């Protein structure tokens, strides 16, 4: 997990953001969660969808919890549940494909057109070893050392974040997150806009520029940290992921980038699945407290329940939560009209029904949540492939398909296992394998074929 | 929309074929041009065969998934018909294959340059475009015919699909003699289209009905 470091230095020390993949769950079915990746700056990225009123739904312990809290619907049709899960699964896959694709398209388009992001102008402070050494062994060693430093920074940040969350230093986390998104939204956008204007040789005066950036940044802050239309929030999250990925692509040296990608996926796997992993602890702590976590660093594919999102005000949400628990079944039914026949199986108390209808209007649809860090690293992979591969578009396309297939598989596993899963490992593995093999094997083959105009 | 798993299978088949070609090139004499050309033909043939093999593997996978879906669905039938899956599978195969063939050419066509300045044909771009279109259509048709043949276990149709694929790929070896390669390929495309249409259940009467409904 990378955390946001609020360094006021130059862009050589950007904030890193990483979030994990979380899925929104529907309480009746044990939560559908995707892996939780390090939350960045303190905020519990796991914006868990507790929105459901904090129904203690989801999450790894969700299975047991929902049994105790909500009348069990699993007793009725396992088949219906499975089919519902699969239906949701297919829909969620599509809901996640679009933003990931958009983010990658933005990154690749920028890499291909704006020269700034492929020039080497120094390195991050987290990767101090240079790769300009003549010998291969030395270069490899340097990249491994860079990776170790980066990963340890990330681990430290994650642990720090978990500790902060555990000891309820919410103000600190909140402030940290606000500062980091401020920096992303204003500083990086300014640089990005400047470079794009330079590339296309468009003249712009400072007042206009400041107006544009001020509006963009202010609306972004409001949308991400407070309330806003869902699509706008999604668009902003995609944009800041793309900006972050561009920064990584620019400032990470070549071999270090590949080794870091590999190491991050291993770390992600461990952090989410090991019992003492920081991310898992974060998820469980948040679940225990039934609190919504700070929203800013998770991409949610469904409507955000905006009530009570900004403050972890458990007291005010207490009574709501109970009603939500009871109304859970009602909500679920509401969402799946094809399963009206499962309605009689719901044993939610009668009086809860009238409340249900009101609550349902506010509730967001269950969706899948993917951490922003996943977006960032997927885009880094594809962007690096676009920037450095000599096979150009073929390699980029192959990596793109590989990442999407990995995402598909991860979501499938999510539907099967119903707990928080890391989103990075499978996709990044496929992406790396395809990148190296396409660049070295497929490219000469296709080039030779194309030069003779042969089609296979 | 199961478009991406298909593209993935095609990529894997391409990967394996290039691996084989790469190994064979490295094991052989680099200087001999005729040998290299022969190896290229061999590589292309292997790639075609692998593509068809992966199409078959994908068919098996879809059958299993279809059966699974049918088991758990309410009325015992799967939500997607096999015909639709065949069409989507063929289409995605065609799209990824076409995109891989043509995107570098497209990217190059933006940049400054003159086509055919070294004595090659000046019609390179337009013929590439037509060939790619034919290829995408062909893959779609082959997908439909292939799945139907596997479903009904008429393996001679399978063999015919593979043979036409090999034939098409072989015809492209006749480039830049475009009359000999483009025209037969389009004839094959048209015939395959008719065959796929009939296989999918269409007929002359259907066309008339469809046109008259409008």
From TrEMBL, chain B:
BP terms from Gene Ontology: Notch signaling pathway; protein processing
GO cellular component: gamma-secretase complex
Top-level division of the source organism's lineage: Eukaryota
UniProt keyword NADP, yes or no: no
Localization in the cell: Membrane
Keyword Disulfide bond recorded: no
Record-annotated membrane-spanning stretches: 7-23, 35-54, 85-103, 123-146, 158-178, 184-204
Keyword line: Membrane, Notch signaling pathway, Transmembrane, Transmembrane helix
InterPro entries tied to this protein: Aph-1
Membrane topology note: Multi-pass membrane protein
Function noted in UniProt: Potential subunit of the gamma-secretase complex, an endoprotease complex that catalyzes the intramembrane cleavage of integral proteins such as Notch receptors.
Subunit structure and binding partners: Component of the gamma-secretase complex.
Family affiliation: Belongs to the APH-1 family.
Name by which UniProt lists this protein: Gamma-secretase subunit APH-1
The species this protein was found in: Dryobates pubescens
